Amino acid sequence: MQNRNVNGLTAKDQGLALCMVCHQLANYKSGENNFCPRCESPIRMRFKDSLQRCWALTICSLIAFIPANAYPIMTFLTFGKGQGDTILSGIFALIKFEMYPIAAIVFIASFVVPLAKIIGLLVLLISLQSRKTFSKQKRTKMYRWIEFFGKWSMLDVFVVALLVSLVEFGTILEIVAGPGATAFGIMVILTIFAANSFDPRLLWDEESN
User: Fold this and answer.
1) Band of the pLDDT at 179, cuts 50, 70, 90?
2) What is the 3-state composition of the chain as percent helix, strand, coil, each rounded to the nearest 5?
3) Phi, psi angle pair for 25, to nearest 5°
4) How far, in Å, CA of 29 to CA of 21, rounded?
5) Fold of 49-208
6) Is pLDDT at 5 greater than 60 in this prediction?
7) 3-state class of 50 per DSSP?
8) pLDDT above 50 for 209
9) Is the pLDDT of residue 157 over 60?
10) DSSP labels, 118-170
11) What is the pTM of this model?
């Protein structure tokens, strides 16, 4: 079935719903069990309690963001002694050793992207409830960027996991994951779940801006 637009009406106004599995646009009948005619997956006009779940997960991820940056994410032990580094202290260390490109990558992927994703979700959630922000098109683009860049915030988790598993030379050199790594991983997972629980179709249910 081709996408149809009648006099600027949304798909919901025309009794159409999108299959979230294969993206087929199909007829939707309220009060009945609706299935995609192409992949036979269940079709819902809107995700149930989407905003409530997204609010809860986003707030939890914001809370986890604090210990993720306050506690050491990893510790380099040399002969059993070492000092842990947080994400920001590790970035400053890279700058100190003039490793500017790596410092920039870590700063963007491990600090800017996670924080921007949380702020972006909060902006979308607040905009749906206040109805006083920018256009639907801009909010939709913001959601697409949140989904696209969100996965890159896993960079630190992968780096720590690889270093812990690969770098171990007895008592001479060892890398140990810190509590910040656990909090960071939890934060990233929560932001992924929060973005997936948000139904972007809700952005088009309001009156025209």
Assistant:
1) confident
2) 55, 10, 35
3) -90, 125
4) 19
5) Butyryl-CoA Dehydrogenase, subunit A; domain 3 (1.20.140)
6) no
7) helix
8) no
9) yes
10) HHHHHHHHHHHHH--SS-HHHHHHHHHHHHHHHGGGGHHHHHHHHHHHH-EET
11) 0.74
